[in-house]
Amino acid sequence: MFSVDTLERNASKGHGLVTSVAAANNVLLVGTNKGWLVHHDFAGTDSNELDLSTRGVIDQWIHKVFIDPGGRHSLATICSSVTADTYYIHGKWKKPRVISRLKGMTVSSVAWNRQQINEAFTREVILGTTNGQLYETAIEEKDKKEKYVKLLFEITEAPEPFIGVQMETVTTGTAVRYFVMAATPSRLYIFQGTTSLEAVFMSYAEGIAHFTELPGEIPNSELHFYGKQRRSERFAWLAGPGIYHGHLNLGTSPSANHTHGGESNVESKWLLEYSKIFDNASTAKPCSLALTEFHFLLLSNNLLKVVNRVSQKVVEEERFDSRVDLGSPTMLGLCSDTAGGAFYAFDENSIYEITVQDEGRDMWQVYSSLKEYTAALEHCRDSLQRDCVYAAQAEAAFEAGDYSRAASFYAKTTQVATFEEVALKFVSVGESDALRTYLLRKLDYMSKEDRSQITMVSTWAAELYLDKINRLLLVTDKEDKEGEKEENSAVSEYQSTVQEFRAFLSDCKDVLDEATTVKLLGSYGRVEELVFFAGLKEQYETLIHHYVQQGDAKKALAILQKPSISPELQYKFAPALIMLDPHGTVDAWTTTRLSLEPRRLIPALMRYSSEPHPKDEPNAAIRYLEYCIRQQQNEDSAVHNLLLSLYARQAEESALLQFLDAKHGKGRLDGPDYFYDPKYALRLCLEEKRMRACVYIYGMMHMHEEAIALALQVDPETAKLEADKVEDNEELRKKLWLMIAKHVVQQGKATKGENIRKAIAFLKETDGLLKIEDILPFFPDFSLIDDFKEAICTSLEDYNRQIEELKRDMVDATHGAENIRNDISALTQRYAVIKRDETCRICGERILAPRGMHGALGVARSYSSLVAPFYVFPCEHAFHADCLTDYVIKHTDKSERDRIRGLLRQLTALGNQEPPITTGSKTSAETAPADGRPSPIDQLRAQLDDAVAGECPFCGELMIKEIGQAFIGSEDSDLVVSWALP
Fold first, then answer.
1. Are 386 and 374 in contact (CB under 8 A)?
2. Is the pTM of this model over 0.70?
3. Domain ranges (residues) in the chain
4. DSSP for 545-585?
5. Which of 31, 152, 165, 778 is most solvent-facing, going by the fewest CB within 10 Å?
6. Distance between CA atoms of 871 and 978, rounded to whole angstroms?
7. Domain 2-356, classified CATH 2.130.10.10, yes or no
């Protein structure tokens, strides 16, 4: 995973020995003991050499060099026996610039604002010095000097140099939170706060800064960080007793009241002691450190040790080759290029590149050996590695006795442990519950192609469920026999297992073999689960049959309400269900989505109606039949007859009469008003002694005499109402009223005077239909005329009034006839005025101009007069007779066209060579025969006038009919082509 290659043999370019190296973004910065700064740009294969020494000052060397993560801004501290200076170098510059305010101070560490720095401006920079001070400065490339230098923090009690410092910023809305970690050889400080760096450190001015102290001797203490996407995630401090490292959680901002609680951002802290790395930790300690994603790179003399951060074990060792001519130089340190992903080691003359290749490939094994299985799974690369981790988890859980958990992990393996091996492991220890768990989880990871394996595994799991249910059932039965009635764990476990088993059946209903599962459930005596499984498999007939046998109509009806149920099951179980729960069954029938046929439910309704029921209980059969007729508009005569029969058997006759009087077919075209059989209804009502209903049926069948005769036996008022129903037959209506009158006159044993008064009152009810003379024959022969004097006088007065009305009607008729004769005489004198320049509306020529013409049918005609015959209509349209005839023949329908042509041929056959000469107002008169009757020619001309000039063709029905005709006929082939769309 790690390899060392020589990058530069002459790193200082001959300007002395290497003292310090920094790297960032493929840029390498090298400082020498003669004050030279060598700038290597590996991306551009370029180098730049700068002399930072001061003329006249001897013994100068570069103490430390620093470069920002982007490789654009650099700092270098040059020291001498007298003073120290710090220079700023931009990547574009050829000449450095001294930071005057740091004169005399040796900078030992730098923290860049990595989140906000850019090419032209460094933003806030924290500088740590060898005197235990932290300064803030900011440098802009275009400025001639630094913007400011502020003292942020100072160690006063026991000053130590700051060997490393790191700054992270987190922006939350408009607020910026600063997190600063700084280290000395024995202490690790943490500072954090908001607003600005000065405000952050000001909060520590009077208080004690939070720090972790690890005293001890170390050749060179260092603080390093590792992270991705410009944010630190881990830190490592090379301290005296060991490597103190941990994880930085900067995702959340602590509240202002916990500003000093810096440890809240540090997680998973750990001290890796040197004794675990070096055989002789007291003498062999690292001089430099580099931090990768999973490893520590430790440099000790000429030996590079690679230590896994998680396992804390040395995984590789690399020894640096030394050149004989250089006298075996000692390695000075390590540096890392986080942006470029490179690591470097250097001595006084050379720089070595440490290449890292796929360092995380074996981390899954490391985490798995430490039993950190979640992290191990995150670092697995393929299914085999995941299987190994799952198997390790399963073995650990199995050894610990957690068999259920072990079963879940074993189910996830597919290559390490076979199905048979795992099943035998659980069988050998008698853990059927764990075996069931293994089988259930195994089903989740099987592919759909393994159909047979899935069926066998699910069947085995079902049997294990049934075995456990029966064992729990035996325990609960034993406790019941011993008198333990309270709820206990066994009962609770039994109920939960049954529910779990039912859920299993629901999930696996499509993969379980139906016959095998039914047999298995039956062998264990689990009837309820058998019914449940039948429901899952949609064996509805079996379910309904079971519920009917149990007398549970509600559950059976609930199944019949399912959308996928067959309507045949509705009819099959209707007789049984309506006997068990009549009203619930009718509710189901009236609310079901299926369109049931009421005729097929008649046997069930008749069976229900044949059984006795409590008087106060509504009849469910009647309710359903009423729903069919009123809501569904059913027209089946069998349904109507059945409802009528049920009404007839009721004690009250009102419902029957209301049903007979209702017009169930009203509103339908060409349909009857009722759909029951009147003859059957009459026979049934006679049997049940429903006389009022019989009267109504007789009347409906137009057997009015029978209806009146029966009504007179029941109620004379009903007879009167029935007689009034006859409206279109006055003679029959009078006959019916005479029947009623006879009954009124002859009924009872009333006195003679009372009978006469009743008869007179009855005559008034007939509204003049019957007269006194009509009812006199019903009285006895010995009745005196004086008793009828008043009625006879009234009748005579009515006759006299009617005679007067007839006289007035005759006079009115005579006047009307005279008016009609006058109108006829006036019609003969009607005329129309034609202007001299009036034109024919068809040909456009003048009406009064002389013209010859060819008439209809192409017959040439000549006229004795100079003016051609023409028609004038009340709408003032005028037409030549021949133009109008041709126009009407062309535009009328075929039958009328044939009739007009026939009339023209008859006129031609009679020898008349001229078309009929007339006008729209018919002002010309024809010579009539001596007897006053018109001649045949006149009759033909009159018929032709009616056909051709009955109405104006432009204003009458002929024009209206032409609206629906096409502009171009099928015979106009040339026009059709010209009107076609391109």
1. no
2. no
3. 2-356, 363-439, 446-537, 729-829, 853-975
4. HHHHHHT-HHHHHHHHTSTT--HHHHHHHHHHHHHH-HHHH
5. 778
6. 37
7. yes
